[in-house]
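Re: weekly structure request thread

Next one in the queue (496 aa):
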Amino acid sequence: MVADKYTPQDIESKWYEYWIENKLFHSEPDAREPYTIVIPPPNVTGMLHMGHMLNNTLQDVLMRRARQQGKNACWVPGTDHASIATEAKVVAKLAAEGINKADLTREEFLKHAWEWKEKHGGIILQQLRKLGASCDWDRTCFTMDEPRTEGVIKVFCDLYNKGKIYRGVRMVNWDPSAKTALSDEEVIYKQSQGKLYYLRYMIEGSDRYLVVATTRPETILGDTAVCLNPNDERYADIPEGARVIVPLVGRSIPIIRDEYVDIEFGTGALKVTPAHDVNDYMLGEKYNLPSIDIFNDDGTINDKVGMYVGVDRFECRKQIEVELQEAGLMEKVEAYTNNVGYSERTGVAIEPKLSMQWFLSMQELAEPATKAVMEDVIIEEEYLPSAHHRFYREVTVVSVPLRFDEGVGLYICESYATGRPVVEPRRGSFPEIVGDGGVLYEDESATGLAEALEKILSDRALYDKKREAAQRMAEQRYSDEVCAKALVKLYETLIK
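Done, posted below.
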């Protein structure tokens, strides 16, 4: 009795369990050609998303194809600890339960982290099974299990001994909540409504002052210079070697001159805080300025300056604004919108901060990669990299005799971009896509295709005519500008 309705919940589960029980996805080394994919391990931060579905489906297609080709296919599943992201999730979970991470010992927190891993890692692996992933589940891994940990240590030591890994103080994106450095990819920039503060820096030995604009008045505690553009006529009369007094702090710092300063922005005078701004750090390196790190790892003020010790950075901002006003050192305050970086993991505003970190030298990888990019050959309409370019240049005519015409437009565009005519059947969307740049045939047999190829290859005048038409169509239909306009039009239609 055949069911009148397909029920994937029953059928797919049944057959997947059969595959697993019979170890149809299990692999052991043998004489066959090996074909192995180590799954890009999903983070145990939650559940899989659509990106994972797409990625793992593509991997599954490759694995099943390899098996059909007689290869010894092994797809290794697993999950990644993703320490920063997972810690943020665990901390948030504990907070919701009324538990403060700071009140836990390391061992107690790790217990909660492992419990999270077991729960969400298990969910992820079950989701992959539901997807039908043909993984060798006997080889399931976790990036913090013993073999992987040993492998990481071994590679780290090897790279260190080769001089590829080094340690140093560098400017990083610091997450004061997670107390860790973040990559640029983990920083989300959002427009934020804030204030632009105009502060008075008294010129030492005179009653004159420079007005400096900043969005972060709390960082005056770490100021080590004020920078002016040497071409700014407003400050031409300030002598070389002049110094200013940091407001409230009372520290004497030099006035330096560099064309880095934008004359048009603010007052044209820039406070330099090398420890808390990437660009200021570069100026500090250039002019041998000291760096004063004013923040603790949790974003509170440290004791290096002796002011506002232990105060949170944003509370410090409020207090400093009041005290600057009272001291007559605030010129004015304006509403200001700027981009502020936030931690993708914890949602708090990141802090540019000097930190001792480990770094991996990428020069050996970057040089050939940069060379490949810079020397790549791009044809007139900027469609094709060199590999495609060479392929199409080496052929006379292009034909892909598919049974169905869906999704075939790309290779026709590529052919036309290199001035190569196409030969396709007269059906579906082919007549519209091919246009004047190719030959269409009625008889979809091998004989019909052969006759169409012979027609264009034996008539030089016809071939040249179709080639010119192909190039013309590439410019008129498929150029970047035309495609961009069509896309904008589509978006506008959808919005309306």
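Confidence is low (pLDDT under 50) at residues 377-385. The chain has 14 helices and 16 strands.
Next request, please.
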